[in-house]
Amino acid sequence: MEEIQSFLNRKGEEITLRPAEPDDAEGIIKALKSAAPERSYVLMEQFGKDIKAEREYISKLSRSNNLLLVGIAGDNRIIGILEAIQSDGGQRPETAHVLNIGLHLMVDFRGLGIGSRMMQYTEEWAREHQFRELETSVFTTNKRSLNLFRKAGFLNECTKVKRIRIGNEFVDEVVIGKWLD
Ligand SMILES: CC(C)(COP(=O)(O)OP(=O)(O)OC[C@H]1O[C@@H](n2cnc3c(N)ncnc32)[C@H](O)[C@@H]1OP(=O)(O)O)[C@@H](O)C(=O)NCCC(=O)NCCS
């Protein structure tokens, strides 16, 4: 597969997808911190850190079994991040075939088909790297995200009832996955 892929989003803007480099650390943090009530907590756990820690994380990440994908707009700004990490850090042979996905786009770049393209890229990458299952967790209130993954062929695996606390409310989280034949 092509490592660097470009396409036009629904507004006709060119978006480029490529694996992240250590120099992307600042841009990634900026994109993740862009205001969003439903921001992906999966990614935030990993990337709520400072630029130095982020640079180190990217340079140490093994590229043969993990994918950190960035979406870049025409002005060279990072507008989206997809992280696909081997389950249990690849330490358990029983789960080494599973790739866990987290995805976040800046608010102005949602609903334009970019998330779907990032998922297509990831699925192709996962197949090339002999993964057998894609998996993610989504709040049941996050309809757009659920739609994105369902459209990509993900099916419900289980629901963790009231798993997530947002202020005084508790919402369910659903684990969804796609088996790669
Ligand atoms: C969830 C997210 C990654 C989706 O990416 P996106 O680029 O906005 O999604 P797409 O434009 O590719 O749309 C994919 C599908 O989602 C659905 N969708 C899009 N916009 C929607 C909206 N406003 N409401 C409900 N469903 C919507 C549609 O079914 C769409 O497919 P279609 O346009 O072909 O009908 C993005 O909105 C985002 O970053 N959200 C905040 C972080 C997050 O929730 N991450 C996911 C948890 S890991």
Short description:
The protein has helices at 25-33, 41-47, 51-60, 114-128, 143-151, and strands at residues 5-8, 14-19, 66-72, 78-86, 98-105, 133-139, 155-166, 169-179.
What distinguishing features does this structure have?
binds coenzyme A, 181 residues, single chain, alpha+beta, globular, Aminopeptidase, 5 helices
The assigned structural class equals alpha+beta
Strand order of the largest sheet: 1-2-3-4-5-6-8-7
- Quickly count the helices: 5
Low-confidence stretches: none
Count of domain modules: 1
Report how far apart the termini are: 18 Å
CATH architecture: 3-Layer(aba) Sandwich
- Rg, Å, rounded: 16 Å
The total strand number stands at 8
Let me know the CATH homologous superfamily. Gcn5-related N-acetyltransferase (GNAT)
Strand content: 35-45%
How helical, in percent, are the residues?
A: 25-40%
Describe this structure in words.
The protein is an alpha+beta fold and 181 residues long. It has one domain: Gcn5-related N-acetyltransferase (GNAT) (Aminopeptidase, 3-Layer(aba) Sandwich), CATH 3.40.630. 28% of the residues lie in helices and 35% in strands. It has 5 helices and 8 strands. The protein has helices at 25-33, 41-47, 51-60, 114-128, 143-151, and strands spanning 5-8, 14-19, 66-72, 78-86, 98-105, 133-139, 155-166, 169-179. β3 (66-72) and β4 form a beta hairpin. The longest helix has 15 residues, at 114-128. 29% of the residues are buried.
